[in-house]
Design goal:
Largest sheet: 6 strands, parallel
Helix content: 25-40%
Radius of gyration: 22 Å
Number of helices: 10
Distance between the termini: 31 Å
Order of helices and strands: EEHEHHEHHEHEEEHHEHEEEEEH
Strand order of the largest sheet: 1-4-3-2-5-6
Number of strands: 14
């Protein structure tokens, strides 16, 4: 999959016969997203043209809420890896800028979709809006389609347990600690991935060595203590207990994902792992003493083991 940041860098020779395009944040790659991507891949194969996903970095919501951005379900690398695994040909991800903020719907269609992508078919969700003040809609795309020689396909939303699947609904479930509901909406456990970094070794000193993962996001979708299952190491899926937060007992401020793997003792610094969140155990809290913290960590371990026993691999 080619990552392209600027219109001028698009592979125009490959796009000469057209392309199949979809646009959105694609944060979390939930079933609604996957339904859209399935249609993009299938249509591109039928037409023998490249498939294109357009997104933004930062996202428009992050741009407009710079002081309090919404939590990300996926950081950029996770999204890139997921789209690549899906089989997308081109990931067009420009910077969301003041110029992009002010572009009209007509200019976006002509400049980006037609002249940039040479779009022959556009696949969108039923809540899609674009351009300045979200003035662009499905109707706007359909209105311009005959003259500009592309077609538009609208894919309906996915409904799970009476809830429309969306990144927002998943964030809300995770923020409330409702991991089971988030898992149902995602169609899989919520996952955070990252490389293990060296920490202050506080956990090791307390008898609970942890694999520390830098969150690399301004807001985390999860906070607190969780039963988790870790993938990406040769030993296979490993059970553990994780903390996502700032470790208030030690007056630290930078959020970090710390994972204690059960019955495991090996140097794994630098390894890239995937942490699946299985069950929320409790919120993060500040303890009066280290001894009180360690006592609670023992309880957390037992609770996590019990929770994971109910969710066998």
């Amino acid at each position: 999959m080619q990552l392209v940041r600027h219109l001028s860098d698009l592979p125009y020779a490959q796009l000469a016969q057209g392309s199949v395009v979809t646009i959105g944040s694609y944060d979390g790659l939930h079933p609604g997203h996957r339904q859209l991507l399935d249609r993009v891949i299938a249509e591109a194969a039928d037409r023998k043209v490249p498939s294109i996903v357009m997104s933004f970095e930062p996202t428009p919501k992050e741009f407009f809420s710079a002081d309090a951005p919404p939590a990300r379900l996926m950081r950029f690398r996770e999204k890139f890896d997921a789209l690549q695994d899906f089989g997308i040909d081109v990931f067009f991800c420009p910077k969301f800028s003041p110029a992009m903020r002010s572009i009209t719907a007509d200019a976006f269609i002509r400049t980006v979709l037609v002249h940039g992508f040479n779009a022959s078919h556009i696949v969108i969700g039923d809540d899609f809006h674009f351009a300045r003040r979200r003035e662009g809609s499905i109707a706007e795309l359909q209105r311009a389609a005959p003259a500009l020689r592309y077609s538009v396909e609208q894919v309906p939303s996915v409904i799970v347990d009476g809830i429309r699947v969306s990144s927002t609904a998943i964030r809300e479930a995770l923020a409330c600690g409702e991991v089971a509901r988030a898992t149902a909406l995602l169609g899989r456990p919520y996952r955070m991935s990252g490389r293990i970094v060296r920490g202050r070794k506080v956990g090791r000193d307390l008898g609970y060595a942890t694999a520390n993962v830098d969150l690399r996001r301004r807001q985390s979708a999860v906070m607190g203590i969780y039963a988790v299952r870790v993938h990406g190491l040769p030993e296979g899926p490993l059970d553990g207990v994780a903390s996502v937060g700032t470790r208030p007992t030690f007056d630290l401020t930078k959020p970090l994902l710390e994972v204690h793997l059960f019955d495991f003792d090996r140097d794994i610094y630098g390894k890239y792992i995937h942490v699946d969140f299985i069950e929320h155990l409790r919120d993060e809290e500040k303890f009066d003493s280290v001894d009180a913290l360690v006592a609670q960590m023992r309880v957390d371990e037992q609770n996590a083991r019990s929770a994971l026993a109910k969710h066998c691999v």
